[in-house]
User: Fold this.
Amino acid sequence: MRWCVAARRFVGRSDRMGWIVKIIWFAGVGAVIGLVFWTGAEPVRQAFEAAGWAVAAICLLRAIAVAGAGLGWFALFPSRLRPSVLACVLIRFLREGANALLPMTQVGGDAIGARALTLTGAPASLSAASVIVDVLVQAVTQSLFAVVGLVTLAATKDSSAVGQTVAVVIGLAIPALCGFYLVQQPIGRRLVRALMARLVGEREWLSFGAIDALYLCLGAIYANRIGLLASASIHLTFWLFGALEVWVMLSSMGFLAGYPEALVIESLTQAIRGAAFAIPGALGAQEGGLIAICAIFGVPANVAVAVSLIKRVPDVVFGVPSLLGWQMLEGRAFLAGGRIAEARRGQ
Assistant:
């Protein structure tokens, strides 16, 4: 009875959180539309059209970057437990697409990615553990990327309010990252078990077995030090590679920005996106951040909004097919489960 009451409370809270996230998603869409009209819908359209061929180039660059992130995820797995490279790369596109397009927080796509990897045959505990560590590695390398951007900004421009704000964001992120890492260690395992015991009572439930399996997989991944270093190196490389998107866009619009300026804009934008992880797709936060950051280099607000909208084009181009592929995986698993259940009834 105690478990049922706790479960009903948990479901009720989950429903409320779902509605809150959806409200935030709609507010974010409204913020993007508002920024477009605030900067001028016609100038934004003209800037978007001026990009021309760059839109296709951005899609190609994003495809390379996301595939590279998939390789970074693949590198984390111990050799005896690795799924295929293709599975990691394709599911990485799904994670990005779900984070950008679905009305859920930016970590929701990672949960969907773990589910999709499980549907390909990987153990659920291994799928979840690999995504948890991959998110941590991404966050750490993203922070390093932001530091590189701040150093570059300091070397090319005077200190600015934007740079100081991002520095504060990075400073606040460090304790959060440390806490996220500690939760994955034995002390975190004991804490999670204690919380589950308070929730379900003193009995041993199957959930405890799932927790133990998850932490065993986390231990196996962290023991793979070479894989961790390789993953971090790959992720950091492709963060730096991502700055080419901004350079190509600004160049196509007639702004003579070099790679250092693009690096600053991309790194600080990604830092703002990371800080706005609770906002689906960082809607509004990305656009507002780009307006402020681009202004440092004399880029008008309407161009900054156009840059942000172009950066969202690959989200749709790759996200929609990825989400459809995920639904096909779910459908295949559902049909397979139905056949197994029917076979058991026939025995």
